[in-house]
Amino acid sequence: MVRFSEPCSTGNVAALKRIHMRSKVDKAAWIYVPMFSLGHWYLMLVDVKHLKLIYLDSYRISNDLENKKLNMIDVQALYLESLTLGQSWLSRPLAERPKFSRFEFEFEFPTVVALEGRMKLATDLVLRNHNPLSRDVVLKAIRHWRSKEMVSQPVRRAL
Question: Against a cut of 0.85, is the pTM above it?
Answer without folding.
Answer: no
